[in-house]
Design brief:
The protein is α+β, with helices and mostly antiparallel strands. The protein is about 35% helix and about 20% strand.
């Protein structure tokens, strides 16, 4: 599914998420588009358990092992996601998710620090990390820009106009 269609779905579903359609259209969607355009794929595969929850992994900083992050891995192919399942002792399934929807969930999910997008099929060692704080900061900046745009005054229509 192309980026425009992915974003249109998010805009249409915004009220069901408790978010203004206008906010998603004018602030969130442009940021999601910018982040998604840095990635190679329009959809990725994530691992989820039987309850439908995405699998979260704790990773440590090489230089500071006591510093851990909670991440969700996003795989470029179903085969890569299947291969990664071998690292878990759980019954998991692979779910295809549009890239903008993954990014939107990163923005919304508490307790997740980053998404790691594995870009090259067959290579589970190197990926692109998108931090939740970076995404949130960009959306906040976009919202601030919108606040600074003057809203045109609406003109009232005279009641005697027929």
């Amino acid at each position: 599914m192309k980026l425009d269609r992915q974003l249109q779905i998010l805009i249409e579903e915004a009220p069901q998420q408790g978010i203004s359609t206008l906010v998603v259209e004018k602030a969130v969607a442009p940021v999601l588009r910018a982040f998604a355009s840095q990635l190679q794929h329009l959809e990725y595969y994530v691992l989820q358990n039987r309850e439908g929850n995405w699998i979260v992994s704790a990773i440590a900083n090489i230089e500071r092992p006591q510093q851990q992050k909670q991440v969700i891995y996003s795989f470029p192919t179903v085969e890569d996601a299947t291969h990664a399942q071998a690292n878990f002792n759980l019954k998991l399934e692979n779910v295809s998710v549009p890239v903008t929807h993954l990014l939107f969930q990163l923005f919304a999910l508490e307790g997740i620090d980053s998404l790691i997008f594995l870009e090259t099929p067959g290579n589970l060692e190197k990926g692109i990390e998108i931090a939740r704080t970076s995404l949130q900061k960009s959306i906040q900046e976009q919202l601030q820009k919108l606040k600074n745009i003057p809203v045109p005054q609406s003109k009232t229509i005279p009641s005697n106009l027929a």
